[in-house]
Design brief:
- There is one protein chain.
- With about 280 residues, the protein is α/β, with parallel strands linked by helices.
- The protein is built from eleven helices and ten strands.
- The longest helix is centred in the middle third of the chain and has 17 residues.
- The N terminus is likely disordered.
């Protein structure tokens, strides 16, 4: 069969109801991400590149490889990479960073903390942790009594590679204030590339690691003073949300701050948190 014919056959192939249910169950159990029947076409589109990468002609062949030939041991990371959604922007939901700078960080420092530990728990391609680092760098600049660290984790290895490099299309940094761009963003020497890179000094303050929020424990070391978990809970059902939120609270220091997405809520959950601003909560 020619390559063109194989591609035509692949485009016409569909995931069977049985295999969709198997894939959806595995994706949910592993990552907590819901995959309702309305996501069938999306899943087919995203999995086609994995079929090509693993040399399988049809979805049936691919699913047989996954579930009957122990393919999950080799393929899970790649499968999860293609099904995760990773939208991110610098200074996204900007009021969170205003609150962090004007209220949270001063309160943490005034409480005697000398190294402010922060965590972007679903960092995607890195815009969020780099934004956090800019705010932290500005807050600690010229101060000898306080420093900071940023941990950035995500389930997807693909986005973590991008985040570590810190190279972005020029238009992505448009929300970054000009004075911060001058301090923390480098432009390409060849203007036609239209790319920028976060400065080495700022990149060095962030530790990137793969982490699954479905894990029973989060190996982050000492408790965090600030945790961002934004626009992730919307992909989970209520029991999964409860488990993730409780584990995040276990990682948050007393008096520390948790930020969730503006479209998310913790209403109905029994958590050691009090609301201090819109979608901002403090550990009690």
């Amino acid at each position: 069969m020619s390559m063109a014919a194989a591609e035509t056959q692949l485009q016409g192939d569909r995931i069977s109801k049985r295999n969709f249910e198997r894939l959806a169950r595995f994706i949910y159990d592993y990552s907590g991400i819901k995959m309702p029947p309305t996501k069938l076409t999306m899943l087919e589109g995203r999995l086609r590149r994995r079929l090509r990468a693993t040399n399988h002609a049809t979805f049936d062949d691919y699913c047989d490889f996954l579930f009957n030939q122990d393919g999950l041991a080799r393929e899970t990371v790649y499968l999860i990479d293609v099904v995760t959604t990773n939208k991110t922007d610098f200074f996204r939901e900007a009021k969170h960073f205003d609150y962090m700078q004007s209220v949270a960080l001063p309160a943490i420092a005034d409480g005697g903390v000398r190294t402010i530990r922060t965590w972007s728990s679903a960092c995607s391609t890195g815009a969020e942790p780099y934004t956090m680092a800019m705010v932290l760098a500005e807050f600690t600049e010229g101060r000898n009594d306080v420093s900071y660290s940023v941990l950035a984790t995500d389930l997807s290895t693909d986005v973590l590679q991008t985040a570590r490099r810190g190279i972005y299309p020029e238009d992505l940094i448009a929300p970054v204030p000009r004075d911060l761009q001058r301090k923390y963003v480098l432009t390409a020497k060849q203007p036609d590339r239209r790319e920028v890179r976060i400065t080495p000094k700022l990149r060095s303050r962030i530790g990137f690691a793969r982490m699954n929020l479905m894990d029973e424990k989060y190996p982050i070391g000492e408790p965090m003073h600030v945790i961002f978990c934004r626009n992730v809970l919307i992909y989970f059902d209520k029991p999964t949300q409860a488990g993730v939120l409780n584990r995040l609270c276990d990682c948050l220091s007393k008096g520390g701050y948790m930020f969730i997405g503006h479209s998310e809520s913790i209403t109905g959950f029994d958590l050691p948190l009090k609301q201090v601003s819109n979608t901002v909560f403090q550990r009690i």
